Amino acid sequence: MTAVTLVTCQGDAITPHLEALARLRIRVFRDYPYLYDGDLAYEAEYLGRYAQNPASLFVLAFDGDTLVGASTGQPLKDEVAEFRAPFERADIDPSDVFYYGESVLLHDYRGQGLGKAFIAAREAHARSHSFGTVAFCAVERPEDHPAKLASYRPLHGFWEHLGYRRRAALTARFAWKDIDAAEESEKPLVFWLKSLAG
Ligand SMILES: CC(C)(COP(=O)(O)OP(=O)(O)OC[C@H]1O[C@@H](n2cnc3c(N)ncnc32)[C@H](O)[C@@H]1OP(=O)(O)O)[C@@H](O)C(=O)NCCC(=O)NCCS
Question: Nearest residue CA, atom 5 of ligand 1?
Answer without folding.
Answer: 115
